[in-house]
Amino acid sequence: MSKAKCQALVVFILFTALLNLACEEKAPIPEEKFVEVYVDLLIVQDTTRTDSLSLDSLQSIVFTRHNITAKAYDETISYYNSEPKRWEEFFNKTISYAEELKNETEY
Predict the structure, then answer these.
(1) Cα–Cα dist 16/26, whole Å
(2) Is 44 within 8 Å of 61 (Cβ atoms)?
(3) Is the pTM of this model over 0.90?
(4) 50-78 pLDDT tens trace
(5) Phi, psi (5° rounding) for residue 68?
(6) Domain assignment of residue 86, yes or no
(7) In 10-94, where do the E strands start and end?
(8) 42 located within any domain
(9) Residue 16 in domain
(10) Are 41 and 73 in contact (CB under 8 A)?
(11) Domain coverage including residue 48
């Protein structure tokens, strides 16, 4: 293989690696923030009378509080649904966060 072909191959491999890194799929909402949003949604749904506010209104309040959009939330749900194993880690973090909140309110 000629030196020029070798150099071209190296450039191609590096370009492909960089492109893969740049295109790596990420959730629109970072996991730490998504955990907080998810737990907040559960809390407001469980502690608010359903006849006083609709589910959409409750979501809107939580989304505004966390400065996210419904679209970003839906896209994040889709991201997790695309690889169900992500949910397991997410729910473990969600449980830990909810327990931290519970411990904070007990004292």
Answers:
(1) 18
(2) yes
(3) no
(4) 666 777 888 899 999 999 999 999 999 99
(5) -130, 165
(6) yes
(7) none
(8) yes
(9) no
(10) no
(11) 26-106
